[in-house]
Write a structure and sequence with these properties.
Layout (H helix, E strand, L loop, with lengths): L2 H6 L16 E4 L6 E4 L1 H5 L4 E2 L6 E2 L1
Antiparallel strand pairs: 1-2, 3-4
Length: about 60
């Protein structure tokens, strides 16, 4: 995977905002281990997220 492909995939899983260069969280899905990114605004507001691979949801 190229660097360009990797940076295009870095968007908030809750709102879709491109999180490149922002204060975002990156963590692995508790169920399947897929990398998930969330922007600071969605984290602060405790917006729900859903894993794109397994459907796990969390706050």
């Amino acid at each position: 995977m190229s660097t360009t492909d990797e940076s295009q995939r870095r968007s908030c899983v809750s709102c879709g905002l491109n999180i490149a260069g922002t204060n975002a969280a990156a963590f692995k899905c508790p169920d399947c281990g897929t990398q998930i990114y969330r922007c600071a605004k969605c984290r602060k507001q405790s917006n729900l997220y859903e894993c794109p691979d397994c459907g796990f949801t969390g706050p």
